[in-house]
Each structure stands twice: as structure tokens, then as C-alpha cells.
Design brief:
The complex is a heterodimer. Chain A is α/β, with parallel strands linked by helices. Chain A has four helices and six strands; from the N terminus they run ββαββαβαβα. In chain A, helix 1 runs parallel beside helix 2. The chains are: A alpha/beta, B alpha+beta.
Chain lengths: 115, 787
């Protein structure tokens, strides 16, 4: 198991913590599970990336697809606690414009509750 | 299912029974025909004899009667004065009192009645029921020279003349009886003349025609001179000599029969041809006093007509009988074999279907009931057997599959040196383990305790099989665990392991062990030998050094006391060869052991520079030695070779036969170890992995389709400022460089999912170049060492 996620908060905004490596091998199963989980939900999402050790373009793609999906229902995605490398990839890939990085969990919740 | 075209039981039964029946009937018919024929012939002969005797008697009595009339007249005349008695009256009396007498003549001796007349022969005959008279003397008919007169006159004989046609009279066939008259009155004994009586033979035809034996059978009469006197064919009568006719038939049998008849014989014979008839039987007999012969011709067709009719009827009865018999046999056979066929039909089913099929109830015959009972029994037994077999098979399969899992698990516990080897730049490790059974008690292990210290071990648990395997797995686990705790302290690792094994060893297994810690920097080897086979060091100049030092007893039973490890410093390119007793004690069919001497000799003579081939060549030698003998013990070998120097800073990874993208995990793992050794920051490693992942994902997405043996090669050189990487794969040509160039011109957005990878590569690398060489895509790039 190179990737796992756990739900830290299940009401709006939902907070999901991701643990492991999000690479070409794990991206598919992660994508399926997260979509399964979100299929009954219609809330804003905050990803806690503290335990995400690695992300490649395959992982970026999963986030992009999520953003795409949530945009249709005017919902938003935010992230907290990315490590330096993960943050770099998110910045390089241009994902930052669609998926804001919050300083901490309170900020993120406060920001999304307002929406 | 194809049914075998066998003849049925009914068919065989019919054929056998009918053959016998037909044989018996044929024999019966032939016998019946033969015997009936014999009887018939006998019967016919008898019949013919009776009929002919009757005919003969009738004829003879007729002639006797005529003779008597003539003789009594002659006698009367002898006693009377004949000459003066009116001869005309005598003749008239004869004719009127004997209707069968046609004419009568009194031929007197010359001059006896009248001295002047020579001839006097009054003749009386019937014409149209009137009596006529004439004197033969009037006709110039010299009767004296005729047989009818001459023979009685000369010899005092009575005589019947040869039959003749009376041309003057009724033109009928006649015969004449002549009797001499002697004067007994007065002058005694003097010859007076001859009295003749003519009789017609016409009545013979009627008589013979009246005798009927068979429809087409007929009688005929011949004289001894061969004249036909009576025959149904009127034109034959008196016309020809019978022998001429017989010659005409060209049949000697018939000629012989006729000659016999002329000789007055009696017989019953078969001839091929009689007159105009084919194949006939002839019965013949003579008329006693008459020198005539009577014959009956009975055509065979006629004779056997009834017999053939009888046989024909019998044949029809036989045919009808056989047809009925066939029907009956088929019916019986069908009835008898019906249950058998039912049972046979069951046998063609799958065994599963067979055991669940109901056995038919049969009451017909004992044997079939027995068979049926046997089937019932067979079905029951089969049911029992199948269910038992199922249980056994399930149990066996479970054990086998568990053993297989255990075997896989055991192998997976051992490090795989044959995979891409991170230690390539400092040390080459090759290994081999082959358990005698599915699982074994041998093991080897090696891992880095820290960046420059390699821990390795080889061991052999007493015994074989599952117990040994479990003990081995706990040993290998303990060693690994304690190596993490105790680090470089080999003694402590062994002490802890030994204690644990000893305390938890109810079956009293023990394990021989050789462990060592090799410093890759100083090349110093620290080792402990717990009763294991002595390892061998092969130096570069083919010198053999046996590390023949035992420090302690095998682990597991007795707690070791004071132990202190030994040290030895290896040289560059030295090879350390470790093995278990499965190698030296490999046994051939003659129960001979491979021996340590053979192994050492083999190692001494091993000249190949590539020491990675050492283990395969030992394996080959063992295989040659043991030949077909089964492997007795687990065989394990471990071979370590130090590299020449440390100048080679590159990591070379080479993967073949790649199945899918999960190879990334292996690559990542190897790179992590390598870069850790090189103390490269995690950030650079991540960048490197990002780029490699993009390249490999890209190859799998677009360029690896239809490539059989997918191969990837990665070479990482650490320079003072950069990681210099060369990546190549054997996928279809794909110019990554131009893809990168395109992606970098557009800013990333939500609509540019596919190009994001190339964008990342562009951002992460310096001087990315692409080239196509030897059907390979080769990408070279640099990543900053300390970003």
C-alpha cells in the first residue's frame, strides 16, 4: 500500500489526510477510492498533505480531475501542510491557481465556510 | 459420444441359431429326399413288377387259352376221321366259340385229302362280323415252305409265329398259333396236317395302355427278335428293329436294357434316354413261354414329381419356420438384452452422472439380475470412492497449495541478488538456494547495517521439510531483528538469536551458521562460525583460503558461553564463497558424496574472470555428479566479490522483461539506497524520480505497445554539482525533447492535462537531450545535486 487516505472531518468542508506516495502506480487506485467516497458528498474539500511524501504528474492529474468535478457544483478544493517538494510540484504544475494552499487547518475551514 | 458399430447380441444369436437350424434342415431335407427316393424307387419297382406280372399273366393266359382251343381241336381231329369230317364246320366252330380268334386254317399234308391235289388248306376268317371261307390252296400260296406249317410238320412242335400284319384281312397285327395234327384214329401217329389259329394283337395295345403307373409312364412290348409289338407310339409297331431305335437315341444304357429284354431277362434300371423320353426308369420282364418282353418306361420327372412337391413344401415350411425363428430370436434377444443395453448406456455417462442415475429394476433373468446387482454395487462403491477421493484430493490440494505458498514465502524471505543490484559498484553478490522438498531449512541473508557495513549469513537448520523451514524462518527473522538492534556487534546478534532459539525450541532443532559483517571501506571481515561448513576465499591469483575456524556450537540447544569473533582483511577482487553441506554431501546413485575436496578443486580451477558465474558452474558440477539421483538435502550457496576500487560512483540499473509500471517501485527503491549512500538530499532524489516516472509512464502510455521484452536501463553518475542521468528504453521512437519544447511554450491550465508531465520534466532538469540509438530512446539529463 503506497497510498491511503483518512477522513479527518466529514462535514463541510471535508478534510482528507493523504498518506504515502502519489505516483503513476498508486494514482489510479487513489482516484477510484476518492471518487467513491465523494460520490455521495457535495462539499468543499481540504486535503491535508502532511504525510504525502511524493507526488508526480499522475497525482497532479487526480487533483485536476477533482477540481474539474467540483467546479461544476461551485465547490472548492484547498490544501494544507504540503512538504516542500510537494509544494514545488503543485506550484510548477500551475495547480496553485485552482487549489489554494492554506497556512493551517483553521484558516482553511474559516475560508471555506465563508463560501 | 460416438457409438461403436457393433453387431448386436440379437444378430449373433440369430446367426448362430439359424446356421444350426439351416444345417439341420438341409441335412434333413437331403436325407429325406435320398431315403424317400430309395423307398419310392423300391415301391415303384414293386408296383411295376406287380403290374407287369398281372399283364404277363393276362397275356399268357390269353395265349394259353388260344393254345388250348387249337390243341383240343387238333386232338379232336386226330381222333376223328378228319379227312371226312367237314373241315369247314370245325373251323366255323372254332371261330364262333372263340371271339378272340380272328381266323383259323387247316393246312393238310400234301395229297392226303385228295390224291390229285397237292395243297388243301381251308381257311375261315372274320370280316365285318361275317365268317368267310377260302382255300389257301386256291391262291398260289405255297404254305408248305412257311414256318407256321413247316416247323410243326417237321418237329411235331406247336409254334407261335412272329407277329405280322395281316395284309389280306383287317390289316391288324396278328400272330398265329400252329399245332400239328397226328392221326390217332386207325393208322396211328401219322402226320395229317397243321391247324392254325390267328389272333389279333390289337387288344395288347389296349391292355397295356390301360396299365397306368404314372401319368406319363407307359408300357411296351417287344419280341425276342427285336420287333415292337406294342407301344403308345403306333408308328413304331413292327416298323423297325428295336435296336435300331435304341441306336437312334445314342444311349448305351437303353441299348443294354433292350438287349436284356431280348434275352428274356427281368430288371429295373435307370437310363438316360428311353425312346423319346429323357432320364427314365425301365422295368422289364419276359413273358415266360412267349419269348416276348414287357417293359415299363417311367420318366424320372414323373417318378420324382411327388417327391419334389413334398420337398418343395418342406422347403417352404422351413423358410416360414426360419422367418418365424428370426422374429422370435430378435424378440427374445431384445427382451433379454434390453436391461443390459440400459446398463451399458449408463456406463457411457460421466462418472458424476453415472453415480446419481437410478439403476433400472430388472426381473427377467437371473444373470441379468446378477449384473444389475453388480452395477448397483459398482455404483455404490464408485459413489463412496468418488466422495473419498474428493476429500483426499481437497486435503491434498490444500496441503500442496499451502506448501507452495510456504515455498514462495520462504523464497521471498531471502534477498534476491539477481535483481538489479545496488551494491554493484562495491560488491557483487550472487546466491542460490534449492530445497530438497518444497520448503527447506537452509537460508542465506545479507543486508546493509549502515552505509558501509554489509551483514551476511548462511545457515542450515537440522532436518528438512516444514519444521526446519519454520525454524529457519525464525532464525532469519531473529538475525535481521537483532542486527537492527545490535548493529555492528556480531557477538551480540548471535548471542541474542541463540538465546531466543534455545528458549523456544521444544523439538530441539539446531542451526549451523556462518555470519559476517564486511566493511566495504576497510574490506575487513568480522565473522563467527557456529558449526557451519568452512567458507572459502578465492583470491585474484586463484589462491584458495579456507576460513577454518569454528567459534561456537550450532545455535538452538546449548547456550554459548564466551564468544569472540575473528577478523580477516580481504583484498580487492577477493571472492568469498559460502555454502551448506547440501553441496559437499550431494549424493550420486552410487551413494558417493560430492565431497569438500571436489568443491575446493573446482573452486581452485575456476578461471573465469566473472565470478558471478561461479555458483552456476558449481550447480552444473553437482548436476553432472548426481545425475538422476534425487536431491537429498537443501543446497545453498552465497558468493560475495569485492570490487576493485571505489572510483566507480555510478549506479547502473538494468531491467528486462518488464510487465507494467510497477517497476517504478523497484527503481525508486534502488535509487533511494544509492543516493542515500551518496548523501544526496531527498529533494534531488524526488526530482530525479519525478523525471524518471514521467519518462517511464510516457513510454508505457505511448511507446511500449507491442514490444515483447520491455527493457529499461538507467545510469546515474554523481558529479560534484549534478546527478548526471542517462535513461534508455527499447520502446518505439518518441522524441521527448520536442514534446517538452511544445509543452514549455504553453502555460499549464486545466485543459493541458497530458502535457503537464513534459512541463515538469522541463522544470526539473538541466540540459535535457534526446537521441535514438540502436532502437532505443535515450534521454540524458542533469539534476542539480543541492537545489
Amino acid at each position: 500500500m503506497t497510498i491511503a487516505f483518512s477522513i479527518l472531518r466529514s462535514e463541510n468542508p471535508i478534510i482528507i489526510s493523504i498518506d504515502g506516495r502519489l505516483d503513476a502506480i498508486s494514482a489510479n487506485s487513489f482516484e477510484t477510492s476518492i471518487h467513491d467516497y465523494l460520490s455521495q458528498k457535495n462539499d468543499n474539500l481540504i486535503f491535508d498533505l502532511e504525510k504525502l511524501a511524493y507526488i508526480s504528474s499522475a497525482g497532479i492529474r487526480v487533483f485536476l480531475l477533482l477540481i474539474n468535478k467540483l467546479e461544476a457544483s461551485k465547490k472548492k478544493i484547498g490544501i494544507i501542510n504540503p512538504d516542500e517538494m510537494v509544494k514545488e510540484i503543485i506550484e510548477i504544475s500551475g495547480l496553485k491557481d485552482y487549489m489554494p494552499i492554506f497556512e493551517d487547518i483553521e484558516n482553511a475551514i474559516a475560508s471555506f465556510k465563508r463560501v | 459420444m460416438t457409438r461403436v458399430k457393433n453387431k448386436s447380441f440379437a444378430f449373433y444369436l440369430s446367426v448362430y441359431i439359424l446356421s444350426i437350424v439351416i444345417l439341420i434342415f438341409t441335412f434333413f431335407l437331403i436325407y429325406n429326399y435320398t431315403v424317400s427316393r430309395k423307398l419310392l424307387l423300391k415301391n415303384v419297382e414293386e408296383n411295376a413288377r406287380h403290374l407287369s406280372n398281372a399283364a404277363v399273366n393276362q397275356i399268357e393266359s390269353y395265349f394259353k387259352c388260344i393254345e388250348k382251343t387249337a390243341q383240343s381241336t387238333a386232338l379232336f381231329m386226330a381222333k376223328t376221321d378228319t379227312l371226312h369230317y367237314p373241315s369247314r364246320q370245325i373251323l366255323k366252330d372254332i371261330l364262333s366259340s372263340n371271339p378272340e380268334i380272328y381266323g383259323s386254317c387247316l393246312a393238310f399234308k400234301p395229297y392226303i385229302s385228295n390224291g390229285n391235289t397237292i395243297y388243301n388248306a381251308p381257311y375261315c376268317f372274320k370280316t365285318n362280323n361275317q365268317l368267310c371261307y377260302k382255300n389257301l390252296a386256291d391262291t398260289s400260296y405255297d404254305y408248305l415252305s412257311w414256318d407256321w406249317y413247316r416247323i410243326p410238320a417237321e418237329g411235331n412242335h406247336k409254334i407261335w409265329s412272329e407277329p405280322y400284319f395281316d395284309e389280306g384281312g383287317g390289316n391288324v397285327l396278328m400272330t398265329t398259333f400252329s399245332v400239328p395234327i397226328y392221326q390217332s384214329y386207325g393208322d396211328t401217329g401219322s402226320f395229317m396236317g397243321v391247324l392254325t389259329t390267328d389272333v389279333s394283337l390289337q387288344w395288347l395295345n389296349d391292355l397295356l395302355a390301360g396299365i397306368k403307373i404314372y401319368d406319363s409312364a407307359y408300357a411296351f412290348l417287344i419280341s425276342n427278335s427285336g420287333r415292337v409289338l406294342s407301344h403308345p407310339q403306333a408308328d413304331l409297331i413292327m416298323k423297325e428293329n428295336i435296336l435300331e431305335i435304341a441306336k437312334g437315341t445314342n444311349n448305351t444304357e437303353f441299348q443294354i436294357v433292350l438287349q436284356h429284354m431280348m434275352q428274356g431277362k427281368t430288371g429295373f434300371e435307370k437310363v438316360q434316354r428311353a425312346f423319346s423320353d429323357r432320364k427314365s426308369w425301365i422295368y422289364y420282364t419276359s413273358l415266360a413261354n412267349n419269348t416276348w418282353s414287357l417293359g415299363f418306361v417311367i420318366p424320372e420327372s414323373d417318378l420324382y414329381a411327388d417327391l419334389q412337391l413334398l420337398n418343395k413344401d418342406l422347403f417352404y415350411i422351413l423358410i416360414t419356420g426360419i422367418i418365424l425363428l428370426i422374429g422370435f430370436i430378435l424378440l427374445i434377444a431384445n427382451k433379454l438384452t434390453k436391461p443390459v443395453r440400459k446398463l451399458a448406456g449408463m456406463m457411457h455417462k460421466e462418472s458424476e452422472a453415472f453415480i446419481s442415475m437410478p439403476i433400472p429394476e430388472i426381473k427377467e433373468s437371473t444373470e441379468i439380475v446378477m449384473l444389475n446387482d453388480s452395477f448397483r454395487y459398482l455404483q455404490k462403491e464408485l459413489k463412496r470412492y468418488i466422495s473419498h477421493l474428493k476429500d483426499v484430493t481437497i486435503a491434498k490440494e490444500r496441503i500442496e497449495s499451502e506448501l507452495q505458498i510456504a515455498s514462495k514465502l520462504q523464497l521471498s524471505m531471502l534477498p534476491d541478488a539477481n535483481k538489479a543490484n545496488v551494491f554493484k559498484n562495491k560488491i557483487d553478490i550472487t546466491s542460490y538456494m534449492q530445497a530438497a522438498k518444497e520448503v527447506g531449512g537452509d537460508f542465506y541473508d545479507y543486508f546493509f547495517i549502515d552505509r558501509s557495513h554489509l551483514f551476511f549469513a548462511i545457515g542450515d537448520v537440522s532436518g528438512k521439510g516444514m519444521g526446519a523451514a519454520l525454524f529457519m524462518s525464525s532464525t532469519i527473522t531473529l538475525l535481521r531483528a537483532y542486527a537492527k538492534i545490535a548493529g555492528n556487534d556480531l557477538c551480540r546478534i548471535l548471542q541474542l538469536t541463540s538465546d531466543y532459539l534455545q528458549q523456544n525450541n521444544p523439538e530441539k532443532y539446531f542451526v549451523t551458521l556462518f555470519t559476517g559483517i564486511l566493511s566495504l571501506e576497510t574490506k575487513e571481515l568480522t565473522y563467527l562460525n557456529a558449526g557451519h561448513n568452512y567458507p572459502v576465499i578465492l583470491s585474484e591469483d586463484a589462491e584458495i583460503i579456507l576460513i577454518n575456524h569454528t567459534h561456537m556450537l550450532p545455535l538452538g540447544i546449548i547456550k554459548p558461553t564466551q564468544i569472540s569473533p575473528s577478523h580477516i582483511t580481504l583484498h580487492a577482487k577477493d571472492v568469498l564463497f559460502l555454502y551448506t553441506d547440501g553441496v559437499t554431501e550431494a549424493m550420486n546413485e552410487k551413494q558417493a558424496l560430492f565431497s569438500t575436496q571436489s568443491l575446493l578443486a573446482l573452486l581452485r580451477n575456476y578461471a573465469h574472470p566473472d565470478k558471478r558465474k561461479l555458483i552456476p558452474s558449481v550447480c552444473q558440477a553437482l548436476k553432472t555428479f548426481t545425475a538422476t539421483a534425487p536431491q537429498q538435502d537443501d543446497i545453498t550457496m552465497l558468493c560475495l566479490q569485492l570490487h576493485n576500487n571505489e572510483s566507480n560512483q555510478d549506479l547502473q540499473l538494468f531491467f528486462t522483461d518488464i510487465q507494467n509500471i510497477s517497476i517504478l517501485t523497484d527503481i525508486q527503491h534502488q535509487i533511494e539506497i544509492f543516493l542515500n549512500l551518496k548523501e544526496i538530499p531527498v529533494k534531488s532524489m524526488h526530482r530525479l524520480m519525478l523525471v524518471l516516472e514521467e519518462l517511464i509512464t510516457n513510454a508505457f502510455k505511448y511507446a511500449f505497445s507491442n514490444i515483447g521484452n520491455k527493457t529499461i536501463e538507467i545510469n546515474i553518475h554523481v558529479s560534484s554539482t549534478h546527478l548526471e542521468v542517462e535513461y534508455s528504453d527499447n520502446s518505439h521512437a518518441f522524441n521527448i525533447n520536442s514534446a517538452i519544447a511544445k509543452s514549455s511554450s504553453t502555460s499549464p491550465g486545466l485543459d493541458t492535462l497530458g502535457k503537464r508531465g513534459f512541463y515538469i520534466i522541463d522544470k526539473m532538469t538541466d540540459t535535457f537531450t534526446y537521441r535514438r540509438e540502436n532502437n532505443k530512446n535515450i534521454s540524458s539529463f542533469k539534476i542539480i545535486k543541492n537545489p
